[in-house]
Design goal:
Blueprint: H1 2-31, H2 36-40
Length: 62
């Protein structure tokens, strides 16, 4: 009985976390914080001569 209850609670928690992650990705896409559509082409545009998706930020020691 306890094993079934733990299984059910963990399944519900994982589903809640999954939907929260999906909603956060949707909100970031709509607000323009992150453009996930650019990353969709990453598998197709992976040659050395292809356009860079996102510029690399340089880390400076301060």
């Amino acid at each position: 009985m306890i094993r079934a209850l733990v299984y059910f609670i963990s399944t519900v928690l994982l589903v809640v976390f999954l939907y929260a992650y999906i909603v956060s990705m949707y909100v970031k896409q709509k607000k323009g914080i992150v453009d996930y559509e650019r990353y969709a082409d990453l598998a197709l545009k992976d040659n050395l001569n292809d356009e860079i998706i996102e510029p690399r930020e340089s880390k400076q020691n301060s």
